[in-house]
Amino acid sequence: MLYEDECSLSNTATVSYGWSKKGEQPQIPCKQRKRERQTVFGSYNYDTGQITVSFADKGNSHTFKKHLKKILATYKGVSKIIVVLDNVAYHHAKKINAWIERHPVLELFFLPPYSPDLNAVERAWWYMRKKITHNRYLKTLKERKAAFWKMFSHFLKPNIELKTVCEINY
């Protein structure tokens, strides 16, 4: 079973927490520049702690299908892959439904609306933001992607650290 979701990486700084005087908003000094963004698709294997990641300039049915192809290649030879995911519009696209029908090894299981707490990979995105985007200034999107890969490269194989971060406790 895989938990799939998307997040975005951008070259903008975010303030998430920190000490400051009452009534003052901490600022991260950075030059104003053209905003850049990339979509990151991630599919987290709850059993092993492994994550499959794809980058795209934009999240849409075309780039989502590319990610599904990467999942098939990663889990080649597996008889059934259940992908748990949210209800973003392009997950329901006719193009995706037709493609899934031709690849019966994949089964999409849609979560109820507004339930990110049921999607384990959401915790991976939270962890990533905490470690590489919140309260940190990186000059370019390229630097942010490099920080992402530095952190996530060891999660591409079965991993106890990511398994601990993504654990669902109910």
TrEMBL record:
GO terms for molecular function: nucleic acid binding. Gene3D superfamilies: Ribonuclease H-like superfamily/Ribonuclease H. Residues 1-143 form the Tc1-like transposase DDE domain. Pfam families: DDE_3 (PF13358). NCBIfam families: transpos_IS630 (NF033545). PANTHER family: TRANSPOSASE (PTHR46564). This is IS630 family transposase. It comes from Mucilaginibacter ginsenosidivorax.
